[in-house]
Design goal:
It is built from 12 helices and 8 strands. It has about 325 residues and is an alpha/beta fold.
Length: about 325
């Protein structure tokens, strides 16, 4: 490794270390954050250039989805998270829809705006919902502009192939960064006859490589590669010059992304082969709900001393006396 590469890695590691300091738990009950609260320390912002530098230095890029203020804060609380994605998967995991195609532009903007309020150092990207970029180029650009302006996101993600190349070029020319998405396209799961691995034949693999290069040439700064054979994920990564973020694309892409609820164990639906549970928050939530309900039912919550307010005894006696006179 060259001296410049070593220096780049050192700087990236140093930046990550700085990002990790200063996190402080803050208990609240419908209480806004106080002005001047420094519980989340300002850290070096991840940019598109940062991702390019990480790719060149062979430092893996980590991306995780978020859907609201708390999950946005959680992604920002860890220095190792480089990109926060407001994924259209929120349609299923947050809103209870059957598929991502039911999510509206207004709903995406609402959630992305909340995530943005909790985001500090990660690059913030959001999916353009199904139908928001499938009409005219002008309508698609206007919808993307609205997402950036109203949600304060930094880039949009588009699923698609050759048919979105012109749009990618148009958006990037207008100053809106685009993350492409190839392979399995969840917004088109019906036309794909389900959520199936893509690129398993010579023809489909060649077509995906061609599409990847076209999207790069159109100006995409990065590319999600979903549900493809690991060998193809590696080939695409080695034959484009922009960072690739894999999800079910093997270990050789430039980075990885998972849906929050898959990674944290709060999604009870289908578990794809590529998903690894890194926590079991669903069990913790169920235990918490049961403990709370039991404490209320048996009268142990709230505790009259530790969890209740009081009033001066003499003052309360005067209050009772005053009430008796009414």
């Amino acid at each position: 490794m060259s001296c410049s590469s070593t220096l780049g890695l050192s700087r990236l590691a140093s930046s990550a270390a700085v990002r990790g300091r200063g996190q402080q738990r803050r208990w609240m009950s419908v209480r806004p954050k106080e002005e001047g609260d420094n519980s989340i320390q300002k850290t070096e912002k991840v940019t598109i250039h940062t991702l390019q530098t990480m790719r060149a230095a062979k430092v893996p890029i980590s991306m995780l989805t978020a859907y609201d203020y708390p999950t946005g804060l959680s992604c920002s609380s860890n220095p190792a998270i480089d990109v926060t994605l407001v994924g259209d998967s929120l349609a299923q995991v947050c809103l209870g829809y059957k598929s991502t195609t039911q999510l509206t532009l207004d709903e995406m903007i609402h959630h992305a705006r909340a995530v943005a309020r909790g985001t500090t150092h990660p690059l913030l990207v959001a999916d353009m919902p199904f139908g928001s970029y499938h009409g005219s180029l002008d309508d698609a650009v206007n919808n993307a502009v609205r997402m950036v302006r109203e949600s304060q996101i930094e880039a949009v993600k588009l699923e698609g192939g050759d048919e979105i190349v012109d749009l990618v070029h148009r958006l990037t020319s207008a100053g809106i960064p685009v993350m492409a998405h190839v392979g399995l396209l969840p917004q088109r799961h019906v036309s794909f006859s389900g959520y199936k691995v893509q690129g398993k034949s010579v023809a489909s693999a060649k077509a995906m490589v061609k599409t990847s290069k076209l999207l790069e040439q159109a100006g995409a700064f990065s590319m999600v590669v979903e549900a493809v054979p690991k060998e193809l994920g590696r080939y695409i990564t080695e034959n484009v010059t922009i960072p690739t973020i894999g999800i079910g694309a093997g270990p050789w892409t430039n980075g990885q992304v998972l849906v929050w609820d898959d990674a944290m164990g709060t999604w009870l639906g289908h578990k794809a082969k590529f998903v690894r549970r890194f926590a079991n928050l669903q069990t913790a939530r169920e235990i918490g709900v049961q403990s709370y309900a039991s404490a209320v039912k048996d009268g142990s919550f709230p505790d009259p001393q530790r969890e209740s307010y009081t009033i001066d005894k003499a003052e309360f006696a005067r209050f009772l006396e005053a009430m008796e006179k009414e």
